[in-house]
Design a protein that fits this description.
The protein is about 60% helix and about 15% strand. It has helices spanning about 5-25, 30-60, 60-65, 70-95, 100-125, 130-140, 145-160, 165-180, 190-210, 230-245, 285-300, 325-339; strands spanning about 190, 210-215, 225, 250-260, 265-270, 305-310, 315-320. The strands form 2 sheets. The chain has a 5-stranded mixed sheet with strand order 2-4-5-7-6. The protein has a two-stranded antiparallel sheet with strand order 1-3. β6 (about 305-310) and β7 form a beta hairpin. α4 (about 70-95) crosses α5 (about 100-125) and α8 (about 165-180) packs across α9. The longest helix is centred in the N-terminal third of the chain and has 28 residues, at about 30-60. It is elongated. The model is unreliable at about 325-339 (pLDDT under 50).
Length: about 350
């Protein structure tokens, strides 16, 4: 439940406490200047207390995970009460003449901590296998029936003229559906996602022939990065569906991976029809929204996704952390063994 070491959790916790402080300051101020002064004073006391709570929760993360749900709530509230007392002590050392509200500070710290722990619980539940499986169901259905029919028709056309090629095509199709319809796991590696995308694009190359050009620029040093499963396949499918298929002259799809600091960068680029073709179905937005939500579920603010049109190209760029791969892999194996 406790994951106070996450950068996104830290940012949201600090903002949450500051919003509460700024709102509470309204009750003791008659003018904007008084409100600003009180808010600044309370921030100077509450911000160190918030950081103390986050540091303690992060440092004791593994010990807290050994407790039951009630024990974790109790520990979080007690840490919050201590952080509230620490904040009150900050006001005391500043030299405030008024009597120090020690009890009120402890109770307020405990209450805010309880709300933060509840938020952590909800966030943790969002990444449980059951929730992940529900989210994957929609993605699994994205390998659409007409793709299956087109692939089978292509294989039938090749059976007599090029039986070896037809066999390879059906093997790729079998592997693709075996992966897509398998029991969902929490995470997979970038290497596995690349392999799945390669199988998908090799099938589409049989169908489009010379109309489809596929370019790979891969840095294998980042292929251990963790991703939600079935993340790249919808993106390369969209590149085909909206960039190559509507263009009589065909087009190009490029997949590139590279290392940038402690991050793995993944870029999928496709040419766009010129002039733009009328979309017969929703464009990149549906897949992008799904990818963005699932990336946030796994990596929170440490992952990013952007998409834009540039000089006749549609570019999707993903960034995921490398540093947390080992720990997340352990969590993934543990979750998979629990099932």
């Amino acid at each position: 439940m406790f994951d106070a070491c996450n950068a996104g959790v830290v940012l949201r916790a600090v903002l949450f406490v500051q919003v509460v402080v700024a709102t509470a300051a309204i009750y003791g101020a008659d003018t904007f200047f008084e409100w600003f002064t009180i808010t600044a004073l309370l921030t100077g006391a509450s911000l160190p207390g918030t950081l103390v709570w986050l540091i303690a929760a992060c440092s004791l993360k593994h010990q807290l995970q050994q407790l039951g749900m009630r024990g974790q709530y109790l520990a979080g509230v007690l840490l919050g009460a201590m952080a509230g007392l620490y904040s009150c002590a900050m006001l005391f050392f500043i030299g405030i003449d008024k009597a120090m509200p020690w009890l009120a500070s402890a109770l307020t710290g405990g209450l805010l901590a309880a709300l933060l722990v509840t938020a952590l619980v909800l966030r943790a539940r969002g990444s449980t296998p059951a929730q992940t499986q529900a989210r994957l169901t929609e993605l699994q259905s994205r390998i659409r029936p007409h793709f299956l029919f087109n692939t089978l028709n292509s294989a039938i056309a090749l059976v007599r003229a090029e039986p070896a090629r037809a066999e390879a095509l059906l093997e790729d199709l079998s592997d693709l559906f075996r992966y897509a319809l398998a029991e969902p796991n929490l995470t997979t590696t970038l290497a596995q996602e690349i392999e799945l995308a390669q199988r998908y694009l090799s099938i589409e190359q049989v169908r489009f022939g010379e109309r489809l050009e596929v370019q790979w620029q891969l840095d294998e040093s980042v292929h251990g990065a963790l991703l939600p499963p079935l993340l790249l396949q919808p993106l390369v499918e969209n590149a085909i569906r909206h960039g190559v298929e509507p263009n009589p002259r065909g087009g190009t799809v490029q997949v590139r991976t590279e290392k940038h600091g402690g991050e793995a960068l993944i870029q999928i680029t496709n040419t766009l029809p010129s002039p733009p073709a009328e979309a017969s179905s929703p464009g990149h937005g549906i897949a992008l929204d799904n990818v963005k939500a699932r990336l946030s579920l796994l990596h929170d603010l440490q992952a990013s996704l952007s998409a834009r049109e540039r000089d006749g190209l549609y570019v999707v760029r993903l960034s995921v952390p490398l540093a947390t791969s080992a720990s997340n892999a352990g969590q993934s194996r543990h979750a998979h063994s629990d099932r």
